[in-house]
Please model this.
Amino acid sequence: MTEAIFDLIKRKAGNSSGVNGDSSLMEIGIDSVEFITMIIELEEEFNIRFEDMQLIYDSYSTVGQLVSVVQQVIEKQKNM
Model:
């Protein structure tokens, strides 16, 4: 699952070379507008819905943080 999330993030990144869990979203070319677009794609790809508080760009300083939240949302909604 983690790999599929990273793959989607890499597709959205303007600079996908060297993307890892410690990469900042800004470093890889994902600004706040691109972030929302990516969230929509993640929702569609994994059939999930983020809560409003999870849509704040500044809450994610690294790709790893975003991947972790996506995994949590998937698990939470899978268990519902």
About this structure: The mean pLDDT is 91.
